[in-house]
Each structure stands twice: as C-alpha cells, then as structure tokens.
Design goal:
heterodimer; A: 216 residues; alpha/beta; Glutaconate Coenzyme A-transferase; 10-stranded mixed β-sheet; 3-stranded mixed β-sheet; 15 strands; 15% helix; 27% strand; B: Glutaconate Coenzyme A-transferase; 5 helices; 12 strands; globular
Chain lengths: 216, 218
C-alpha cells in the first residue's frame, strides 16, 4: 500500500453513516474509494451539488455535471444542485459534517496553512478558507514530510487558511489530534515507531504511554 | 427583455467596464458572448468571476488575450497565464474566499450594504478590512460587489427571460443575474413564455435584460 492510499484508508474510517462530506482536490478525493460498506455518506462539492456519484463511463459525461476540480461526475438518488451562495451557506453555516483537505503545514495550535506559498505558488484560496472556518469537523490529510522538512511545525510560516483549530491530522506516519494542551499523538502508521515520528516532526507532540498502530 | 444576436452584445459593453462573468472552471460560462467581447477589441475590463478557468475557455480567454486590467476571483491556479501576468504586474488580481465572493455579489444585487463573515479572520484576507463584533463574535465586513454588465449562462429561457440552469453549470450565474446594471444571458434554448412551470424557474425574468442564443453545444 502506498502512503497516499494509507492516508485515504485511515481518513475513510472517520466517516459516519449519514454524514455530509466535502473532499478536497487530490489526495482527499481518494477517500471516496475506501468508505466501509456499511457506511453511507453524501458528498458535497463547492461548485454546487450534494449527492456526487462516481466518474461516468466514457461517452456518458454531461458537460454541466462536474466536481470542484473540473472532473466529470454522476449523481446519486437524492442529489440536489444549487448556486454558489447556497453551496457556501451549507459550508459556512455549519451544515457540512466533515471536510477533508490537503495541507502544506499544520502547527502546534492546530492551525492549517494550505493555500499559498508566497512568491512561488499563489493559486488562490478557492473554498478552503470557508471550509476550514465552517465545517463541523476538519480533517487534514497529507504526507508527514515535504522532502525532508516536517509539515507538522511549531508555528506555520506559510499564510494561514483559518484561525480555526483543525480536528484531526492524518499522515503516512501518524494520526495526530490537536487539543487544548497541544498536538496529541493518537496512532502510528503500520511499522512506524514513535521515535521515527518524533524525528520527523518539528512540533512538540504529546506522546501517551501507549500509541496504537493504525488499523486500515 | 429582448432577444438579441450575439453580434449585438458589445453595444452594451464599454472599455473599462466591470463585468460579472458566470462559470466555475468554465462550466456554465457564457462562451459565445465571451468570444464576441474578445473579438470586438474592447478592453481594460475588471472581471469578477469564481476563477480564471483555463487559458482556452471561459474567463481564461480574457486574461490570455490581454483584455483585463483587474481580476477579482477566488482561484487562479488552473490558468498559468493569470499567475504570470500577476507576477509581471500587467494585471491586478484580488483573491477572495469563494463563499465571501458569492455573498459580496449577492449583497450587491439584493440591496445590502455588505456582509459579515468569519471567513478570512486572522489571515491575509483581513488586511485593510473592518472587523465588526456581534454578540461577542468577530466578523469581517465585506462590501457589496456590482458590475456594469453581468454576462451569464443558463440552460433554458422563455421569452420573458425566466431562466433555468443545469446541474453545476448554475454556480455564480443566478447571483450575478441580480448584481449588474445590464444582464445578458446566453442560453442553449429559448421557449415560448408560459411553457415553464413557475415553480421550476431559477432566475425570475425581471432580472434579465437581454437573451442570446448560444452556439452549438456538446
């Protein structure tokens, strides 16, 4: 299993039956492939739909039916489409249960930076600031390291996405929960030692006596 | 409400106008009208839209063809030309969180003096903005956005200008339909007035000034 699949599988276990879920572009989108069979969720996309279904078969695409990453989609029974104000009323108004986003950095306050690298990459925040500010639960799904640098840092050096403390960080090495006391190490990836995680993490971690291995 | 040819749209558009343009990465963008405006040679627009799409379609073409002096959008990452021109400072880019942008345009159309949102607090978005506290919670005051002209796309219109959109091609279109002095809607089909059930209309025709029948669509 590669590291992205591991992260996506572990995040999928966080989804509860009946949840309304928004998956970010890239790695977070992979979560949809690993949802347990007994769990039913509805997917929201910020371009204006609840009830996204899988990618259509070739030749069956509808030019007006896409996800927020411009990929063609289908829809499931019970789906509903709406305009952008409604889409963000759902997000900002606290009606979205879970958002899963990628990250560039998360710090000891649990704050996320994921939308720009000054002077290098300025794609814009799109819906990310609203998602992190408004969703009931924010899960960051990202690799633990960028090259050799830790993405879990003492203080974000990149511009913040929101002041909001995220709820869970899932990486290819660990599951970490930002708490009032600091970043709590909750689980370690299969075969990864706590000492490996500490070495790969710039931020201070709270390490309980027993850190179970992720079940994926 | 008047049905006009796409050739006539530029009569209502002037150099330097603020244009609200519908679409999300080109889905639900009025491409026939966009192409006509670009071909007309008019320029120096401020363009307000969700994103700058790709270089080849939607708002992306305005950037590629150097018709824009300022872009107000939530995302420019899919169009390298926008980033290039921003870095060269040949265009000004104002990035706004997507939900805030939607509500600013809505505010512009519905007679509100602005909106209060928690989105962007404590980030670079906060710069030069007023923070308002309501019942102990902080919000950013975001001002209304209006256009001289809104150029939008719908699936279907009747001859009274009532509009129906299709799936995720709806996005910013109905919001922009309320927020400009002149509203021009490109549609794929025009049907007789009375043939649409009033309950199924998304944008009331009173918002729409001109309807254009678009070109061949996939």
């Amino acid at each position: 299993m590669n590291s992205k699949e591991l992260i996506a599988r572990r995040v999928a276990k966080e989804l509860k039956n009946g949840s309304l879920v928004n998956l970010g572009i890239g790695l977070p989108t992979m979560v949809a492939n690993y949802i347990p069979e007994d769990i039913n969720v509805m997917f929201h996309a910020e371009n204006g739909i609840i009830g996204m279904g899988p990618t259509p078969e070739e030749g069956m695409e509808n030019k007006d039916l896409t996800n927020a990453g411009n990929g063609f989609i289908t829809y499931v029974p019970g789906a509903v489409s709406f305009d952008s104000a409604m889409s963000f009323a759902i997000i900002r108004g606290g009606h979205l249960d879970i958002t899963v986003l990628g990250g560039l950095q998360v710090d000891e306050n649990g704050q996320l930076a994921n939308w720009m690298v000054p002077g290098k990459k300025i794609p814009g925040m799109g819906g990310a600031m609203d998602l992190v500010t408004g969703a009931k639960k924010v899960i960051v799904a990202m690799t633990h390291l960028a090259g050799e640098s830790s993405k879990i840092v003492k203080k974000c050096t990149l511009p913040l996405t929101s002041l909001r403390k995220v709820d869970l960080i899932v990486t290819d090495m660990a599951v970490i929960e930002p708490t009032e006391e600091g970043l709590l190490l909750v689980e370690r990836a299969p075969g990864v030692k706590v000492s490996d995680i500490l070495k790969a993490t710039e931020a201070e971690l709270i390490v309980p006596d027993y850190v179970p291995e992720m079940i994926v | 409400m008047e049905i006009i040819s796409v050739k006539d749209v530029t009569k209502y558009i002037n150099d330097g106008d603020t244009l609200l343009i519908g679409g999300f990465l080109g889905v639900g963008s009025p491409d026939a009208i966009i192409n006509e405006i670009i071909d007309s040679g008019k320029k120096d627009f401020t363009v307000v839209g969700n994103d700058t799409s790709f270089e080849t379609n939607g708002i992306g073409r305005f950037v590629k063809e150097n018709k824009v002096k300022k872009i107000i959008a939530s995302h420019i990452g899919t169009n390298p030309e926008t980033q290039k021109q921003m870095i060269e400072e040949s265009i000004e880019v104002e990035l706004i969180p997507q939900g805030t942008l939607a509500e600013q345009i809505r505010a512009g159309g519905v007679g509100l003096g602005g909106i209060l949102t928690p989105t962007g607090l404590g980030t670079v978005v906060e710069k030069n903005k007023t923070i308002v506290e309501v019942d102990g919670k902080k919000y950013l005051l975001e001002k209304p956005i209006r256009g001289n002209v809104a150029v939008i796309k719908a699936k279907k219109a009747d001859k009274a200008g009532n509009l129906i959109y299709s799936f995720t091609a709806r996005n910013f279109n109905p919001i922009m339909a309320m927020a400009a002095d002149i509203v021009i809607a490109e549609v794929e089909e025009i049907i007789e007035t009375g043939k649409i059930n009033p309950d199924e209309i998304h944008t009331p025709g009173i918002f729409v000034d001109y309807i254009v029948l678009g070109g061949d669509e996939k």
